[in-house]
Design a protein that fits this description.
- The protein is an alpha+beta fold.
- It has two domains: 1-30; 39-71 and 83-156, Sandwich (Immunoglobulin-like).
- It has one helix and eleven strands.
- The protein has one helix spanning 2-27, and strands spanning 39-45, 51-58, 61-62, 64-65, 92-98, 101-106, 113-120, 125-132, 136-137, 148-149, 153-156.
- The strands form three sheets. Strands 4-5-6-1-11 form a five-stranded mixed sheet, with no helix packed on it. A four-stranded antiparallel sheet has the order 3-2-7-8, with no helix packed on it. A two-stranded antiparallel sheet has the order 9-10.
- The chain is elongated, with a radius of gyration of 27 Å.
- The N and C termini lie far apart (96 Å).
């Protein structure tokens, strides 16, 4: 009798241990590959007719145009004085989404503070503002992370260069 009970008890112990291992495997979270981007929206209020470009800057550098977004062609007579920032090293990629709005895709670490610069056709500074950012996840999960965004940055244009 004892040998039958010993075999049954061993079988029950193995079965319970197997169920615990299976339960542990079900609790593990498998996160998808990182495929999201975090963004910052900037909106201009006021007369935007003199606005040529909008830059978002940190200590690491300023934004560059998003190469995937069609940009207005520049006249052939213009020759840049310097090659400018390397698109792959810039902290943000910028795309204009409306006459008065730009979307900046964050590349790398999320900044806590940015400077927004509004430039005229001749390169003069129309407006500049420093902003603190508070990031909020807008997708994904707490365990796996996900895309983040901030409240839109709004700049009021006064119509005269600074």
């Amino acid at each position: 009798m004892r040998s039958k009970w010993g075999i049954c008890r061993s079988a029950v112990v193995f079965m319970v241990a197997g169920m615990q291992l299976t339960a542990c495997g079900m609790a593990d979270v498998v996160c998808p590959a990182v495929g999201w981007v975090s963004t910052i929206t900037v909106r201009l209020e006021g007369d935007v007719t003199a606005v040529s470009n909008l830059e978002l800057c940190t200590a690491e550098g300023c934004s560059v145009p998003d190469l995937a977004t069609p940009q207005p062609a520049s006249p052939k007579s213009e020759v840049p004085d310097s090659p400018g920032p390397s698109p792959s090293m810039a902290p943000f990629a910028a795309s204009q989404t409306a006459v008065n709005a730009w979307l900046f895709t964050v590349r790398g670490l999320l900044p806590h503070e940015v400077t927004t610069r509004v430039l005229a056709n001749d390169g003069s500074l129309l407006a500049q503002q420093q902003s603190r950012l508070e990031w909020t996840r807008v997708g994904g999960s707490e365990k796996c992370g996900g895309p983040l965004t901030t409240h839109p940055i709004t700049l009021q244009l006064s119509g005269r260069p600074q």
